[in-house]
Amino acid sequence: MRFLSLSIALRYFKSNRRGFLSFVSIMSFMGISLGVAVLILVTSVMNGFEKELEDRVLQAIPHASIEGEPFITDWHIVNKVLLDNKNILGSGPFIETQGLINSQNSLKGIMLFGINPELEKKVSTISKNIIIGSWDDLNSEEYTIILGDILAMQLGVNVGSFVNLLIPDTSMGLLGTFPRTKRFKVAAIFSIGSPEVDQSFAYINLRDASKLLRTGNKIHGLRVKYLDLFSAKHEIYADSNRINSYLNTSYKAQDWTSDYGTLFRAIKMEKFLVSFLLFLVVLVAVFNLVSMLVMTINEKRSQIAILLTLGATRSSIHRIFMIFGTLIGTLGTITGLLFGLLVSLNLGSLIDWLENIFGIYLLDAYFINYFPIDIRPFWVFLICVISLSLSVVSSLYPSRLATKVNPANVLRYE
Predict the structure, then answer these.
(1) How far is residue 264 from each of residues 178, 258, 261, 281, measured CA to CA in Å?
(2) Is 147 helix (H, G, I), strand (E, B) or coil?
(3) How many CB atoms sit inside 10 A of residue 249's CB?
(4) What would the pLDDT profile of 27-64 be if each residue is shown by its tens digit?
(5) Angstrom distance (rounded) from CA 280 to CA 283
(6) Cα separation of 355 and 300, whole Å?
(7) Could you tell me where the DSSP H helices lie in 111-256?
(8) pTM of the model
(9) What number is the average pLDDT over the span 138-155?
(10) How far is CA 97 from the centre of its chain?
């Protein structure tokens, strides 16, 4: 009897009916397919943005920092105490200031960082993103500087060019305050892929920064990188308390969420909201599936009555429409899965093609100027399972309705 239920369900499924009922069944199938495909595509793009932010930007900046008020004097001692935490991958001293940089072509405002080139390699990925020149040239006895590619382009400079740095001087002279100026040679150019970093960050040797700002052996703070980016917020405050308690100091802690946390939370919230709204597309398609099954049952009432009179059980009738609804949901989910993966894997080429045709560049002005794709198997699996589960659940009521057909009433006038 179970094979009979399957056979009849497959026959309904492969039926070449025409008219409104056939239209509703096609819409149910297409709605589920489209919903699953769009959910896979959008979640892959949103996951891609999240991953790009985490990998490209949040790895290029320190996870956290210990900062003096305003300076840290014996930073070697602070660093030694800090590294007692086994969850720290690396730490390095820094001096930070704002300044102006000018070439023959332009004048730009920048964030200037004085760093130890060797220790900085353990803290950020800037050294791994050098596109021209060498990171190690910061160790040169010359005054050397490393710029982002956008900043270098705006200044019209390249490796080997010279630029002038203008740093604010807080000391008061007879004629007031004047900025300190120093000529630097461009040693290398990096590219993170984030306009915010590539057009406003510049790096010089810690030794040169201390001379420019006249800090001597004092630094502004220590940049820290942890094993887990997302534990940095809690780890750095625990480490700062431990250092302050041990050294009887009042150093403050800073973590990446103060600058980039809002953007990261916004992407997560957008991913949730967009996924939820697109989930409603699948839900609407499931309601169409319920409507289609109810109309099919009403159309097949006489056939159901004949099956019951021939000895079919009400449970077998229930199975027929459960299998029928599940088949539509399964085929729609599989079609949506394949289409969603196909579009996701080729989205970059598709967007480039559309941009070339219409001459409109969609993401040029944004933080990440292309559509990153990160297809996560768990998300794809979850979307498919939810779609299939909704299809099965939506078939329960119509299938139960089919078992309540009364053969005597239906066949009385046949």
Answers:
(1) 40, 11, 5, 26
(2) strand
(3) 16
(4) 778 888 888 898 888 888 888 877 877 777 776 778 88
(5) 5
(6) 51
(7) 117-120, 149-155, 195-198, 206-213, 232-247
(8) 0.68
(9) 90
(10) 30
